[in-house]
Amino acid sequence: MKYKAFLAVGAMFLAIQAEAAKPSIIYVPMDNRPVCLDYTVQTMQAAGWDVEVPPLELIANAKESAKSDELFAWLESRADESVAIVASSDALLYGGLVGSRTHEIPSDVLKARAERLINLSSEKHGQKVMVFTTIMRSPKASAAPVEPAYYKEWGPKIFRLGELEDKLDAKVIKKKETKELADLRQAIPRDVLNDLYARRSTNIRMTELLLHGVESGDFDYMLIGRDDTAPYSQAHREARNMDILVHELPKERIRFFSGADQLGLLLLSRAATRLKYELPVINVTYAPGTGRNTIPSYEDDTVKVSASEHIFAAGAFPFTRAKNPDLTLAINTPYNGKTLEASNAANTYELDRPTASFVKKIERLVRNGKQVVIADIKYGNGADNALVKALWDKNLAHKLAAYGGWNTAGNSLGFALAQGLLAPSFAPGMKDYFLDQRYLDDWAYQANVRMKTYTELIWPNYWPNSGLSAEQKSAAEDKITNEIQALAGPYMGDAVNEYQFTLPWDRMFEVKVAKRNM
Q1: Quick one: which of 31, 123, 258, 489 has the fewest CB in 10 Å?
Q2: Which residues of the chain have pLDDT under 70?
Q3: 83 closest CA partner among 20, 133, 132, 6
Q4: 130 bridge partner residues
Q5: Do the strands 128-135 and 281-286 form a parallel or antiparallel pair, or are they unpaired?
């Protein structure tokens, strides 16, 4: 039920032009992790779009930040040949998502880069310019190299400090927490606090500067993602203030919600939808229980708000009971609203009553010819084992338009939504390929094999979780491959042997899943 925006001859002519120029979108990812680069570009290419990305040596990797000035030069040299530009401001300003937290770049250089990005619009020739950026995250625990070095010692206390300062600002802090806040301010070294707040202040100032690109119309669209956050945290505190500025801008050109890694594909899917002058209609449905009112871990909004914002950002329109929707977004939420980690012992293969009811709903929708996307956010950092097993057992695994259950709720929801919107245009066989990729990544690795590899290989040998040596990485990849084949083989058969599993950032957090002959 797509509402075509062919309301005039001129609009129809532009749409024909867009289709003719379809193979030409410029994409600047935040870094080269598979979800930001390989998976995203493969998805767009499978839908018929030729996405041009910068040379790999310019993009941030596990060891080096992006070469921002060279990225700008490349972008400006290629812009005229595109119909749309989708770019990460974190890559262009700071050198990537990690760089946005760890850089030592002078403020005047960052300001000049922000202005250069805004001015890109005046140098283009009718291309849509869409930008995504992030508010610095508030991790409960982290360490170098993805955070400043002091996080190793002070990370949990820094998180608690931000949580209490947010509560203080919101006037909900308790008396005993006021004393705890004062103690934390004294305990954390002054040089750590100075550096922390200077970094966060710089990030906010640059984001505010980029908002002028929305206000002026230089950016056709802007997404602001709140990287790891919580209902009370420093990131939430900053977001509350930022939200005031965002609400003064036209809603049709900006959205602001939780998550970071899904933003690239989400914005590319919007570009595709807009270039084809379509407005997909999406029904949203939830698993029984808390459902839409769930506030997932690592986030600070309800799932209902997040889903609606993601759908609008993707260039679609949310409904609850549209008769003939283009997609149904089915969101698997925990019955009690508490999102545990996927590695928790509670994540069993036993199908409880709420999950069984959710699966029946999916089965009914598929049987009635609906295109269904599952956002599996019952657990954080991995899939719901019982749900995935039921999808395989009931022959539903490959009847979905898309599936996602890999990291934070926003990551999973946004990525699956974007793939679902693009799925009708996929080349033959590619929908099943992407579904298998997600099951092998989100279910087999994230929810199961990652922890098994930790407990049976990494920790007994006192190896690091990240920064693995070449020998350690090779041994871990062999272990991961064998374990995934053993787990997924009974469901996928010999097809699982066609995939290889690598650790592209020399750490256990993410795995790259790819067919050996692709």
Answers
A1: 123
A2: 1-23, 122-125, 518
A3: 20
A4: 86, 221
A5: unpaired
